[in-house]
Automatic annotation (TrEMBL):
This is Ion transport domain-containing protein. One of its GO terms (cellular component) is voltage-gated sodium channel complex. The chain crosses the membrane at residues 12-30, 42-65, 77-97, 118-143, 155-173, 194-217. It is a multi-pass membrane protein.
Length: 256
């Protein structure tokens, strides 16, 4: 059992699983092409089946080593769920099965340490991002009511309702054709329209959205610091063990 544990925890095994995940994602992507399915459909199906078999064997090996403690780790649960979903029949719908299989590519997140750290950082940033989302939602609502009242009659397709205004403001926030496609035509009938849209862009695009980036960067920094701290603790533990071994050796020499 110790040899099996060493195998599944080895860097070689981890790299092999990463390679299989990447290859499987490429195969699933190729299967979306009708031409590729006609030419090498059998080969692609075989490779996909082999990849799924490898994933199942990996889960079985880890269950054999870790037993019930396997399910105590979030990433093990994540991997198990992805493999389990791949085995579901979905009523025989080929389209659904093909679509669901691509979720296996998400296993890269649990397998590659750097991607796992980014995922941790994003999850840790969710509470703070929720507060920013509330502020952003409030800003959207205020400006959508303002835009509906001012521009609704002249441009009902853009600002006729609160919903239409929200969608139009979202387009403006993304800066997609906001000037030539929307704001400049409005300014032909409402010359002061820039006094509404320019502050909205400054507040949302350059202030609030950048707050998301700042929160994520801060969360990434915390995750990195925690990782460094954990490595330092491991080093201290190793140093203590080495010192104990040295002391034991000295005691043995003194007795002899």
């Amino acid at each position: 059992m110790s040899k099996l544990r060493d195998l599944i925890q080895s860097e070689t095994f981890n790299r092999f699983i990463i390679a299989v995940i990447i290859l499987n994602a490429i195969v699933i992507g190729l299967e979306t092409s009708v031409t590729m399915r006609e030419k090498i459909g059998g080969v692609l199906k075989f490779l996909d089946g082999m990849a799924l078999t490898i994933f199942i064997v990996e889960v079985i090996l880890k269950l054999a080593v870790y037993r019930l403690s396997y399910f105590k780790t979030f990433w093990n649960l994540f991997d198990f769920s992805i493999v389990a979903v791949s085995l579901m029949p979905f009523g025989g719908s080929v389209t659904v099965v093909r679509a669901i299989r691509i979720f296996r590519a998400f296993r890269l997140i649990s397998t590659v340490p750097t991607m796992r750290n980014v995922a941790y950082a994003l999850m840790n940033a969710i509470p703070a991002m929720g507060s920013v989302m509330m502020i952003l939602g409030l800003i959207y609502y205020v400006f959508s009511v303002l835009a509906t009242n001012i521009f609704g009659e002249a441009y009902p397709e853009w600002f006729g309702t609160i919903g239409a205004s929200l969608y139009s403001l979202f387009q403006i926030m993304t800066l997609e054709s906001w000037s030539m496609g929307m704001v400049r035509p409005i300014m032909e009938t409402h010359p002061q329209a820039w006094m509404v849209f320019v502050p909205f862009i400054i507040i949302t695009t350059f202030a609030v959205v950048n707050s998301f980036v700042a929160i994520i960067v801060n969360s990434m920094q915390k995750v990195t610091e925690e990782e460094i701290q954990a490595e330092r603790q491991e080093i201290h533990i190793l140093i203590d063990e080495v010192r104990k071994l040295q002391k034991d050796i000295q005691d043995l020499k003194a007795r002899s």
